[in-house]
Structures are given as C-alpha cells and as structure tokens.
Amino acid sequence: QVQLVESGGGLVQAGGSLRLSCAASGRTFSSYAMGWFRQAPGNEREFVAAISASGGSRYYADSVKGRFTISRDNAKNTVYLQMSSLKPEDTAVYYCAADGTARWRAAVQSVAYDYWGQGTQVTVSS
User: Fold this and answer.
1) Number of H-type helices and E-type strands within the chain
2) Is 112 helix (H, G, I), strand (E, B) or coil?
3) Model confidence over 88-118: pLDDT tens digits?
C-alpha cells in the first residue's frame, strides 16, 4: 500500500515556474515507477511524465517535453515535477501516481497506475 500526497501547486504567471512534490508513505516507494498526470475542467485526465523506480529512465508527453522535468529522491520517498515556461494551457489539477509493475514500461494510461494522490491545483494566468 502506498499513500501519495502532492504539494507545491499555486497561481503563476505565464512563463513562470513551479515545482510540484509528491510525498509517498511506505517502505516500498523505491520499487514503484511514478507518474504525473493532469486534468483540466471538462477534459480527461492526461499523462504528463513518468520516471522509473531507480530514476534512470524518464518519459514525457510531447506537450511538456523540454519544459517539465520529472525526478525522484528515493531516500526521501518523494517524486518531483519541475515545471518551467508555463502556459495557460498547463492549468489543471496535477496528480501523482504509482505503478507497481516490476518492469519499466513508461505507462501513459491512467489505468496502469495502482495508487493516486488527491491532486494539487496549478493555475497559469496569461
């Protein structure tokens, strides 16, 4: 069982930056690949980025590639999403999720993830 709590969301102007954090409970955090998703009002939840259990592999949605960076600190049971050059279309609730599958698969579908946080709101003003 893994419990996830996101933080770091807020209001930022276009072109600005934010860093989201996702703190995980449990001693097995380092065995989970982690992902970030987002959901804007009226839209489906969409994949943003994923990182393997060791942190050695990463995968990004085309819409955020070059602007967002996913990272993790297994000693702190935390995964991060550094967001730069933010755009109004990045406005959404951002969720972190844990994928318990042993093999790295860069899962982009939400159904592949076993555990979810409650989300943190990111609002980018123009």
Assistant:
1) 0, 11
2) helix
3) 999 999 999 999 887 888 899 999 999 999 9
